[in-house]
Amino acid sequence: MMLFLISINYVDRASLSVAMPIISKEFNIGPAIEGLLLSSFFMTYAFMQIPGGMLADRFGPRIVIAGATIGWGFFQAIAAVCTGWVPLLLTRLGLGAAEAPIYPAGGKLNGIWMTQTERGRGATLLDGGAPLGAALGAILISGLIATFDSWRTSFVVAGVGTLIAGYFAWSYIRNDPREHPGVNEAEASYIEAAHARDVASEPAVISGRVLDFFKYRSVWGMFFGWMCFNALFYGLLTWMPTYLSKVHGLNIKEMGGAVFIMFFSGFVGELVGGWVADKWRAAGASQSKVLRSLFGFSSIIATAAIYSVSQIKDPVTVVIMLSVTLFFLRWCGLFWCIPSILGTRDRVGFLGGTMNLGGNVAGIGVPIVVGLIVQATGSYFLALMLFAAAGAGLFICSTFLIDYSKKLPV
Prior knowledge:
Layout: H1 2-27, H2 31-47, H3 49-59, H4 61-78, H5 85-99, H6 102-113, H7 119-148, H8 151-172, H9 185-201, H10 217-246, H11 252-282, H12 287-309, H13 315-329, H14 338-342, H15 348-377, H16 381-401
Helix pairs in contact: 1-4, 1-7, 1-8, 1-10, 2-5, 2-15, 3-4, 3-6, 3-15, 4-5, 4-6, 4-8, 6-7, 6-15, 7-8, 7-11, 10-11, 10-15, 10-16, 11-12, 11-13, 12-13, 12-16
């Protein structure tokens, strides 16, 4: 269910990126305003991350996830009536605020439902909705635009579909496995035994003050590592459709197909990363060895691949290298294991919100910075170098700054 919802989440947030070449002509706006529109979603999305996580800790994931889904479906649909870039910006601010709780609440749900050797796959299924939704969004939104010759119709269809998904989320999700009609006694006992092992590993003495988390290097490594990850991912999500259209001459259908291939490669990579992590962990490897090795390897390959894009002129090869970038970058969806690794059960939502705040600070800044770079230089070269630098930062934070071996006494 979380894979389904996060996929819809990314269809909706990617819709503006896909439609931007058409919208920019209709509203007569340049790259700087395009960057502002693409980043506006992240302004409220980032601001609401920690409150969203605290709501999930306080009221449970179910009501938070269902309410968020219905809220962002509303804002997605009403964007269709906008007649200028200012009201469109306001709907994107509303979309960001409504979508914000979905990841922290989903991370908490992963901790509730998954055992220690299942959370890698749980985390990557949760986060796998990002590249899958971006891939499907490219096909769906570009297909709807081509079919109806209207970006507005595509936004209405996406918004109404999201409202319906919110109802299904409420009907299916439960805050505790024993509350779910599909769970039998053996399954509930198995999960509860894993939770008991988690509780046994928690520190005997905790401070009880959430701000104490920021005394620890691991929390800052998590925060800045996820920021670097999202600087690269959101840079690709927001600007690659325009880049492929303007630099390599792809039309709306070709661009939609190329973006689908890129981001579907990311979805496959995410599932591969989660499977490898859980299998390696179940074979007896330590948590630290598994995560450091996978994060380090994947970030090096992603960084090298995105750098190569700046040197390549052939559009087919560019799409291949962008697909390689996303395949390995999305292994780092395993970051969604980190809140439950570092935090006690009552603090997982807060840590998930803190982590995603870092990620979406990058979401605010990167689209604007890229827009300003392109407007000032007339080239995407420095933007691609920015993405490569983010990949290097991800490597440093994930391999050197985070201690994956113990929970924090907070």
